[in-house]
Amino acid sequence: MLKVSNVLELMKNTPLVALRGRAVSKPRARLWAKLEMAMPGQMKDRVAFKMVTDAEASGVLRPGGVIVESSSGTMAEGLARVGCIKGYRVIIVTDPRIDVSTAAKLRALGAEILVVEKYHPTGGWQQSRLERLREVLRNTPGAYWPRQYESPSNPGAYVDQMAGELIEALGGENIAALVASVGSGGSLCGTSTGLKKRFPHIRSIAVDAVGSVQFNQPNSNRLQSGHGNSIIASNIDYRIIDEAHWLSDGEVFNGCRELARREGIFAGGSSGAVYVVASWVAEQFGPDKHVVCLLPDRGDRYGETIYSDEYMEKHHLMGQEAAAGPQRIRYGVDVAERWSYAPLPHDGSVPYHSPDVSLSSDITRELGL
Ligand SMILES: Cc1ncc(COP(=O)(O)O)c(C=O)c1O
């Protein structure tokens, strides 16, 4: 039996589970899911732990100090839990979209939650949150802001640790592809960097949302959350990503339901998206290869959305399952409306992202943070 001295020791070594793949897929390579949702606070635990320990080591965070972050999900929970065990005050700036159970969990862990009220006319909730965060930082001398979109500690949490866990679990056998969703880019880019040291030809496959700007697509409204973004996180290292996939809300939510039905894994939206793509990717390789995917969070806080028939019907998402495979589109030229994919242009012929979207580092500069 695993015996640990506190929950911080559970923020790594997540299980690797063999998957059957979707009903419409015929995976030939062995398909594995890394259950990041099995950590006490889900996917960002290992990131929060690394950020805080790096900040302690560099002296940015002092004993009994204050951690301030803008988040409404897994990052907030990771920081709240690490702060609770290590004795830091944690302030989370969020917006009215935060769900009841996440807010309750954060409060239970001792975090203070500040909910912004005004939607910023150009920068939306993201900008409103950053402006409030700036205020808090100004009024709290010595406070530490982890900045998951920019901090090297975010991908740094994956480079050696996650890649090492995967290589060890598969006995050093060949991993042909890694499939992961992208929000800050930390998990895909950090893990790819680590795995590429051992398997230089591994394919690094990004899963994004239709309507997200991360891979040179126009911004549009979407219901899926966790992955996808309306700004570009500086932690997305485009040079190491081989291929991007985009999925619509209906494809993602129905993918979650299929993941639960076929594999017994009750997970959040990004896991459903990853499941659809990884099942197909595993068809592209032979039986002597492994395809690994990362499943970020549990399904509990999506009971009133992804797992509610009423919600699905209201948004006309019932029956919108992903096809057996994606359609190929031209990167930066065609607009994805349903499951599509494109290889990333590494010859500079097409920009990775459109020039008129802000980078996370621009926002922090603009706000003088
Ligand atoms: C539920 C969920 N899925 C996926 C992601 C994307 O992961 P990353 O930030 O490592 O790109 C996040 C990021 O916050 C998330 O919370």
Which features does this protein show?
binds pyridoxal-5'-phosphate, 2 domains, three-stranded parallel beta sheet, Rossmann fold, 369 residues, eight-stranded mixed beta sheet, 11 strands, alpha/beta, 33% helix
Description of the molecule:
This protein has 369 residues and is an alpha/beta fold. The chain folds into two domains: 7-37 and 155-323, Rossmann fold (3-Layer(aba) Sandwich); 45-147, Rossmann fold. It has eleven helices and eleven strands. The chain has helices spanning 45-58, 74-86, 100-108, 124-139, 153-159, 161-169, 186-198, 249-263, 269-281, 309-314, 360-366; strands at 16-18, 30-35, 66-70, 89-94, 112-115, 175-181, 203-209, 243-247, 290-295, 327-328, 340-343. The strands form two sheets. It has an eight-stranded mixed beta sheet, with helices on both faces. Strands 3-4-5 form a three-stranded parallel beta sheet. α1 (45-58) packs across α2 (74-86), α6 (161-169) packs across α7 (186-198) and α8 (249-263) packs across α9 (269-281). The longest helix has 16 residues, at 124-139. The N and C termini lie far apart (46 Å). The model has no long low-confidence stretch (mean pLDDT 95). Bound molecules: pyridoxal-5'-phosphate (PLP). The site of pyridoxal-5'-phosphate (PLP) has 18 residues, from α2 and α7.
